[in-house]
Design a protein that fits this description.
The complex is a heterodimer of chains A (492) and B (487). By secondary structure, chain A is mainly alpha-helical. Helices cover 76% and strands 1% of the residues of chain A. Chain A has a two-stranded antiparallel ribbon with strand order 1-2. The model of chain A has no long low-confidence stretch (mean pLDDT 89). Chain B has a two-stranded antiparallel sheet. In chain B, a hairpin with a 4-residue loop joins strand 1 and strand 2. Chain B has one domain. Chain B is built from 20 helices and 2 strands. In chain B, helix 3 runs antiparallel to helix 11. Chain B is 74% helix and 4% strand. Classes of the chains: A mainly alpha (492), B mainly alpha (487). Chains A and B meet through helix 17, helix 18 and helix 20 of A and strand 1, helix 5, helix 6 and helix 7 of B.
């Protein structure tokens, strides 16, 4: 038991610090609350250190009778989520200082991160659902945290649609349990997994399995914002506080895809009789998501809505990788490592873009793209950071986004999905228009009014990390690719 | 050596970009020094290059991304043969010219020269990369500097033109990337040298489809009618130096890619498509020439004439013989210098008169004799007068093509006649004709940074025209193995 607790220590420590912050907050004076972000950072750092210690001690194992797996995949995502949460803490420190309920904000942020970390390691349907709800409910509240009309509307919209998605997921899980009698995605010692039981069962279960697959696919597509389950994205991004939108855009997506890999790649398996079905499902999601996301992004005049649609299109890119896993017939694991690698680069890039937007919007008081005119002069470093992230989102070298797209397209080509790659690259060309239009606004158009914009030290640190990271991964992608491949190999 | 040459401009760009504000004047000398070192380096390569050995020289290679199990191996692999070296020299030369003729740029000077230098690295990288993915990386790297150079320092509808350029290029190159990935997967390597020695028979999609995907990228760049529409806009609205680079070097990336990758790696498929390529070439030559006849804007006129001239490059490649392909490579070099010079001259005229309209200009030869003489020489070179470099190239192309295709070759000859028409008409209207009092006070090209590039470019044009052997030998070193594989 103690052994098992040791292995989920990073998760536990985050939960403890979340609760701790809530309690400390009660006792603190108003002016002392500015120290709370340090508490959150300390919790995240402690979780990261614990994870490192676990690696050094070689403690990878499946614990709690096969429900949680500490393997290279969950470790990779532990670091990813801790990094995301850390950067979001840096970026929201100023924003939160103006709020009334500061302790609650940090607690929710840490709890959402806790849920994501659990999701990446979960191998059991029940744990997946519990962790998913922990993450989602924290995010619903964060989205509505501003308590003005728009933020409340966004929060409500998010919670209603999110609840439906959760219900659909649960229904799919019920099907799986119904036809197999177990909730284990992967069989621990001496037991059988869902899929092993189904494969031994009658052929009539195929229809039920297919229904379960579609429901799980649809439900998680909501979480990662794939079309046609994307309706909440632009509204929530636009109305929620920008740091929260940044957190939703990357955290929710990364966690959702991690679970999808766990369920479909590790659970269902690529070379099972249902493999080509779910490959086709995600290929279809990829095509509509990229196309709808990019075309809608072309029409936006509000930068947060544009980033919302862009994140839908990017989810489509990642879905190409998911589709590639099964189409390859299990021969190549490039699809899974492609998804993992793409997520890691996307996290840095998109957070960077949002952070720059936080600073600029605060100063301008609006999110209109037109307001970005002349930023190259008013805020040279800020504009450069945003430009790097936008170029990376487009997929132009020498940035992380280029390598990530290259990698995922390569995976799809190796899986004989050349048609899907052609759709993907043409979409990349479309996306160049709206990403570069902002770059051109910042550097080409004259500024309507002068006055330098300088980010706070917190945000400057976050921005520096992301933009340096984006270029560094673009130039030396090998270590991260290696890590992603190691992570994916834990599933296959 | 090659790495040094390719990345020196980027280092220069960083130095230029980080100059303190009161040192902004140092941007120009710094950029000039960097490009001159690159030119000197490329000439040194020319001297050291061993023509008797076939294959790549000055190789540098190490693994950049070596993802073991998964087959995603990308090398950092630079090397040049005679074709690459020819293009590198052309690039290095034209960038020196571009820096010189930008001497009067005062708007955001540091950024301007920094982006020009980044652009130079991208182009040199394309001509030296020997790994498909590395090639593609450099190919894409060129987008951002070009976009900003046109949209900030351009004129007219510069935003529109810059975006059009980017969207055309990125669409073509995106399809090209798919072709590369399919090819790399089929062969198990992205190494261009290995690929060129392999016989690839089978891929995830038919090889003819792979050919078309890759061809799309190069066809946009060259450009080939009907994918050329970005070119007149981009040329017209770009600042002079960028027009020179665009016409002189960037278009050549398309022709170079066709020779190196389509002919080099997919020779059999290229054979199958040769008739279509020749027909497209004839279409480009004639369409480009006819449209040129109707232009009254000097820059648009030269831009459309480039479409026509690039048609000859494609015709030479389609001939798939040693003579034709050598002619195509020579035409790329010669067109780079000649059209570069024409854009330089138009830039000078525009700086002085602030118009590029042929109808408004008249009798400039009386006021600015130096400009007039150089312009006439460049024009004659462009229409392929003997003793100029364009003549040698076009003769070789037509000789090569004549062996295989009769009709396209005849159409090509007609294109030359049309070229004589539009060039002479333009020169006659602008330089000669009655004196216009509006232009009576124009200063001639007297400053060193104007005269130096003019003299150097004219010298190159004449030298190659009169004694093309050194350059032809150099190109042959690369073309012979290609022609040999075609059988």
């Amino acid at each position: 038991m103690l052994e098992d607790l040791d292995r989920i220590g990073p998760v536990l420590i985050l939960m403890v610090s979340a609760g701790g912050i809530l309690l400390v907050d009660l006792a603190l004076h108003e002016r002392d609350r500015r120290w709370l972000p340090f508490g959150a950072l300390a919790g995240l750092a402690a979780a990261a250190i614990w994870t490192v210690v676990l690696i050094l001690r070689g403690r990878e194992a499946v614990v709690f009778s096969g429900t949680y797996s500490l393997d290279s995949f969950s470790i990779f995502f532990n670091f990813l989520f801790l990094g995301v949460a850390g950067l979001v803490v840096l970026a929201s420190a100023d924003h939160v200082r103006r709020l009334r309920y500061q302790g609650e904000f940090w607690t929710l942020l840490l709890l959402a991160t806790t849920g994501m970390m659990l999701l990446a390691g979960a191998r059991d349907l029940i744990l997946i659902f519990v962790a998913l709800e922990l993450t989602s409910i924290s995010q619903y509240v964060l989205a509505g945290f501003l308590k003005d009309d728009r933020s409340s509307e966004a929060g409500l919209k998010y919670i209603i649609l999110g609840a439906i998605a959760s219900a659909v997921i649960l229904y799919g899980m019920a099907f799986l349990f119904g036809i197999s009698g177990t909730t284990k995605l992967v069989a621990p010692e001496g037991q059988a997994s869902i899929f092993a039981l189904i494969a031994q069962g009658e052929s009539g279960t195929r229809a039920a399995l297919f229904a379960a697959m579609v429901m799980l696919g649809a439900g998680f597509s909501f979480k990662v914002a794939l079309v046609p389950f994307q309706m909440w994205v632009p509204d929530v991004y636009e109305a929620a506080a920008t740091p929260v939108a940044a957190f939703l855009s990357v955290g929710s997506k990364a966690a959702g895809f991690a679970v999808l890999l766990r369920i479909f790649y590790e659970g269902f398996g690529p070379d099972s009789f249902i493999g080509s079905d779910w490959s086709n499902l995600f290929a279809a999601f990829a095509v509509v998501s990229m196309t709808v996301g990019n075309v809608m992004a072309l029409l936006q005049t509000n930068i947060k809505r544009m980033l919302g649609y862009s994140s839908i299109a990017q989810a489509g890119n990642i879905a190409i990788g998911v589709a590639a896993i099964a189409a390859s017939g299990g021969g190549v694991s490039l699809g899974a490592s492609g998804v993992t690698f793409f997520l890691a680069t996307y996290v840095f890039t998109n957070l960077g873009a949002f952070f720059a937007v936080i600073v600029i919007s605060q100063r301008l008081g609006s999110d209109a793209i037109a307001g970005y005119a002349g930023m190259g002069r008013r805020a040279p470093l800020l504009a450069a950071a945003l430009a790097i992230c936008l170029v990376s989102l487009t997929g132009i070298p020498p940035t992380a986004g280029f390598v990530a797209k290259l990698y995922i397209f390569n995976a799809a080509v190796q899986s004989d999905l050349v048609w899907l790659v052609i759709v993907g690259v043409l979409n990349t060309a479309v996306s160049a228009y709206y990403y570069l239009r902002i770059v051109s606004h910042m550097y080409v158009s004259p500024a309507p009014d002068e006055g330098d914009i300088v980010p706070s030290p917190w945000l400057a640190a976050a921005l520096l990390t992301t933009s340096v990271g984006v270029v560094a991964i673009g130039l030396v992608p090998f270590p991260l690719i290696k890590a992603a491949e190691r992570a994916a190999s834990a599933l296959g | 050596m090659l790495t040094f040459l390719v990345f020196l401009p980027v280092l220069g760009a960083i130095v230029v970009a980080t100059l303190p504000r009161d040192q902004e004047r140092q941007a120009k000398p710094t950029a000039l020094a960097v490009t001159c070192i690159v030119l000197a380096g490329s000439l040194l390569l020319f001297a050291l290059f061993d023509r008797d050995v076939s294959g790549l020289q000055f190789r540098e290679r190490f693994t950049w991304i070596g993802a073991g199990e998964a087959g995603f191996n990308i090398q950092y692999f630079l090397g040049i043969d005679g074709l690459g070296l020819t293009m590198v020299i052309l690039t290095a030369f034209l960038f020196v010219v571009a820096i010189l003729i930008s001497w009067k740029v005062e708007l955001r000077t540091k950024e301007y020269f920094a982006w020009l230098l980044v652009l130079e690295t991208a182009v040199l990288g394309v001509f030296t990369a020997q790994d498909l993915i590395l090639f593609f990386l450099f190919w894409e790297l060129e987008l951002v500097p070009m976009y900003l150079l046109i949209s900030i320092w351009g004129s007219g509808r510069k935003d529109y033109s810059a975006m059009k350029f980017v969207l055309f290029t990125i669409t073509g190159s995106a399809l090209m990337l798919v072709g590369f990935l399919v090819l790399g997967f089929a062969a198990g390597t992205f190494d261009m040298e290995l690929l060129a020695q392999m016989q690839i028979n089978d891929a995830a999609i038919p090889l003819s489809a792979v050919f078309l995907l890759i061809f799309a990228g190069f066809a946009v760049k060259l450009p080939i009618v009907p994918l050329h529409t970005w070119l007149p806009d981009a040329h017209t609205d770009a600042p002079t130096a960028v027009s020179v680079i665009l016409a002189g070097v960037l278009l050549k990336m398309g022709g170079y890619g066709m020779l190196r990758i389509l002919v080099g790696i997919l020779p059999d498929t290229t054979q199958d498509y040769a008739v279509w390529l020749a027909s497209l070439a004839a279409l480009s030559i004639l369409y480009g020439a006819v449209i040129t006849l109707r232009q009254t804007d000097l820059k648009r006129l030269i831009a459309y004439s480039s479409v026509s001239h690039m048609g000859y490059v494609l015709l030479g490649i389609a001939a798939l013989g040693q003579v034709g392909m050598t002619g195509a490579a020579l035409q790329m070099f010669s067109h780079g210098v000649i059209t570069g010079l024409l854009f330089v001259m138009v830039g000078m005229i525009y700086d002085r008169t602030h118009t590029r309209n042929v109808n408004e200009l008249s009798g400039l030869a009386h006021v600015t004799p130096i400009i007039a003489i150089v312009m006439v020489m460049a024009g004659l070179a462009s229409l392929g007068l003997p003793a100029m470099s364009g003549f040698v190239a076009e003769v070789m192309i037509l000789l090569g093509a004549g062996e295989r295709f009769v009709a396209p070759t005849i159409l090509g000859v007609i294109g030359i006649l049309l070229a004589a028409g539009y060039i002479l008409w333009m020169v006659q209207r602008v330089m000669f004709g009655p004196k216009d009092p509006r232009w009576a006070e124009l200063p001639d090209a007297t400053s060193w940074w104007e005269q130096l590039p003019m003299a150097a470019m004219l010298a190159v044009i004449l030298a190659v025209g009169i004694y093309p052997a050194p350059l032809v030998d150099l190109i042959d070193q690369a073309i012979l193995p290609l022609a040999g594989r075609l059988g």
